[in-house]
Amino acid sequence: MDIHQTLPPKTGLAGLKENWRSDLQAGFFVFLIALPLCLGIAIASGFPPSAGIITAVVGGVVVSRLNGSYVTINGPAAGLIVVIISAVQALGEGDALAGYRYTLAAIMLAGALQVVMGLYKAGQFSAFFPAAVVHGMLAAIGIIIIAKQSHVMLGAYNGPGSIFSTIAQIPHSFLNPNLKIAFIGMSGLAILIGWPRVRHPRLKLIPAPIVVLISGIVFGLLFGLQQDFDQSTVSEKQLIFPQFLVAIPEDLSGYFYLPDFSKLFTFAFWEAVISICLVGSLETLLSVSAIDKLDPYKRTSDFDRELTAIGYGNALSAFFGGLPMIAEIVRSSANIQYGGKTSWANFFHGLIFLGVVVLFPTVIQNIPLASLAALLVYTGYRLASPKTFRQVLDIGVEQFCLFAITIVAVLATDLLIGVAIGIIVKFVIHIARGVWLDNLFKIHFRIERGETGTIIVKLLGSALFSNFLPLKNALAELEQGQTIIFDFSEGYLIDHTVMEFINDFSHRYAAQSGVCRQVGHALERFSDHALAARLMTKDDRKN
User: Fold this and answer.
1) Which of 78, 158, 304, 500 has the highest local Cβ count within 10 Å?
2) Residues 514-527: pLDDT tens digits?
3) CATH of 438-535, one of 3.40.50.2000, 3.30.750.24, 3.30.200.20, 3.90.1150.10
4) Partners of 515 in the beta sheet?
């Protein structure tokens, strides 16, 4: 094997010179996937379609030069739709354009908070959120996206009301669709479901979202949608609430809106800032962690630098009228699949976005909203698929209950309150199982040197999602190529989040010529899953 195939690619200008062909190709294919998603996410968020383009350009051209990862793609994400549309509605109080500009101000401050968090090494605190709560939050977001975009995909109108009301109106929309729009939307959904089963090697190279977009444009022309919509006379209201087709300004200068800070001192404004910052940061850090596992060169990202770069990108994007961005996992995995090797692929993806908008605006103006809605419904399904529910249930009934409680809490309240409820329930479960109060936030462990090349990590008491950060930091400082033994024999409760972390750490350590083993027989495991929570010893508080 050629040694150059196994060495990590160079970075910076040397990396550009070495890998520009593969990164340019990957950037182009990622653009094809990202274009319809960015437009759809912007519209679903209550922003003009142009906001999604601005975000992709800033995320690619600017953030790629600042971030701490290698193959991530930055841009707007479906997971933030719920947060953004809630901010627009709460701050605008019925005025969509005003709500949009108020939300831009909130995004700018959320970005500034992310910069501060990154500079003060807050990236590590993403570990504080229990895995089941995070999965519940994402599944709830998926359900909300499906509920809202199903109506758009069918060309039907759903009345105002809660998310439960929106879900209840879906059968009515299926029975009373706009037939032309519903045909475009449902055919797009069918393509997304069926395209992975295509066996032709050349056809498989074409991303499914671009097939949906092209078919939607063709059907729109056949059905005469373009004849009913004059893009040259589009109003500001139509930019935010377009009818059937994507509405973008003819002139590039019409893309930009300035933030409005006049609601700076209101509770709703700061609720939006915290929600955008929290959800965006959490999704970014989780995505970067997942993408590192997919990187064929097994490189490790700098989480704090990534968070700082995302913060700068969000502030700049919002200043020009764009959405917040995250490190997006679907586009990033596609980047790896199509041969992306360095962050220049992200740069090229943003540059191609800018070129297409300048040179081919008419193509974008002919995209039906139903096609974009089909993409979002499919994205929402992937967040809340039966497979996700089954995987959580396999870990244990406790994890599934926590997952379900978080979903219901988010749907009934909002993201912040729902996640908080999930975390509180997790604490109640731990206390009910006998975890000492002073062990909830403080972990006890020892690191001992055994025989040559052996390191023993001995856990004492309980290791929980809320206290294992010092353990995580200590393990990061250990030298590579040793044999690490995790000794659970004197532990009490080891929860699923910690077991999942130790499993991931062990795989990464093994990839760098190390060995990890576990010792200690559990008195009780809460399911048959290998990473289920477990009790190791009896509660000895009375001893």
Assistant:
1) 78
2) 999 999 989 999 99
3) 3.30.750.24
4) 483
